[in-house]
Amino acid sequence: MEQALSDVTVLDLGQVIAMPFCTMLLADMGARVIKVESLEQARERLSLGMKRVRNGVEERVPVYQYRDRNKQAITLNLMTATGVALFKELVAHVDVVTENFSVSTMELLAPDYNILPAQIFLDTF
């Protein structure tokens, strides 16, 4: 079944809660979401979890099970020239790039990010 955003590809650089939640909603509406993170961030994300009790048994539910549903994921080191070059190559093939880095981080990672070919940059504060 065709979904509202099935023709949209999103490159997700989001961190913590706000942007991953935003891109989860985009993925739920059919967008192809490609999550980009460093290897260290990937390890941390996979180790986080919430405790819950189900049928009297306490268990830990990994956060990524719900927040990163319907997403593809890659690891990429944006602190290296090779990583930035690969990022720019990926951007040429997507419709939207999302990020919620601290102010001016994108300028440090990719000084010319304003001229990247993605049509929309989403940023949360």
Main sheet specs: 5 strands, parallel
- Compute the gyration radius: what is it? 16 Å
Kindly state the percentage of residues in helix: 25-40%
What best-fitting shape do the alpha-carbon axes yield?
Answer: globular
Number of helices: 5
Global structural class: alpha/beta
Average predicted local confidence, pLDDT = 80
Notable features of this structure?
alpha/beta; 125 residues; 5-stranded parallel beta sheet; two-stranded antiparallel sheet; globular; single chain; 32% helix
Explain what you see.
By secondary structure, the chain is α/β, with parallel strands linked by helices. The mean pLDDT is 80. It has five helices and seven strands; from the N terminus they run βαβαββαβαβαβ. Helix 1 (18-28) links the parallel strand 1 (9-12) and strand 2 (32-37). Strands 5-2-1-6-7 form a five-stranded parallel beta sheet. The radius of gyration is 16 Å and the shape is globular.
